[in-house]
Amino acid sequence: MKLSICTISFRHQLVSIDQLVQWAQANHFQSIELWGVHAKNLAEQPSYNKEWLAGFGLTTSMISDYLPLQGPETDAFNKVQQLCLLAKHWGATKLRTFASNKGSQDVTVQERADITRRMKDICQWTAQHGITLIVETHPGTLADSMASTLQLLEEVNQPNLKINFDVLHVWESGEDPIDGFNVLKPHIEHFHLKNISSADLLSVFSPPNVYSASGSREGLVPLFEGAVDYSRFLNYLREYADAKFLNMDASLEWFGDHCKKVLSEDRYKIQQLFQQCDFSTSHVS
């Protein structure tokens, strides 16, 4: 896997982009996933760009933001245009969003139709820039279950709509991550990897808590120490997935304390696992 750090992990720390990139290089990451608000703020310093990042042997795997799927079309269009230009500035070909802020069981038929129509428009706008729109599997959205995610892909029906497969959130939905992977496999273009000590503590990932500097971090644990069995999931990819997935972008999405320590140790453990892979014998299951 091509592993990224997420700049959102450092959202409450006084760390510069220079320091983050130098640390990512020194710790053998391949990419950064750039939070949209960070990309916007860095636009005032245009010398920070894809060429500058390449000087450290790094790329931008994805710009992550939150697109308006309801409300005035002009607002959505303007935000998409801004983010696409930022993505091109950083050399990213993927723009991540969420499929609404309501779960699939909470929207009306009309609301769902309006949301999917807006997503179709956004896909067409991003396609003009050569950008893929990435929807994350996530609770409280239209991608909160395998059935609804597949329905969403069918309703939007655009070739540049793909999936960010968040392993924990798929597990949270009640799906075995391996089964979910096989269901969505043709549409997956990115992985998010994170873990929790217990399902009882999943509320720690709610946006009001995660984005609060004083929010709880209870339950956040390194990748191989939590309730989701990442050894099993990653070993399945190692043994049965084809090279597309073995070389796919994957972000270590850490929201807790001691960012550098946890991220560097998780990266090392993933590297050790995948070094066992013989690409010549990998196959699609």
UniProtKB/TrEMBL annotation:
Q: Which Pfam families match?
A: AP_endonuc_2
Domain of life of the native organism: Bacteria
Keywords (A to Z) from UniProt: Isomerase
Span of the secretion signal?
Answer: none
Q: Tell me one GO molecular function of this protein.
A: isomerase activity
Q: Which InterPro entries match?
A: IolE/XylAMocC-like, Xyl_isomerase-like_sf, Xyl_isomerase-like_TIM-brl
Q: Which residues form the Xylose isomerase-like TIM barrel domain?
A: 22-258
> Know the name of this protein?
Sugar phosphate isomerase/epimerase family protein
Protein species of origin:
Litoribrevibacter euphylliae
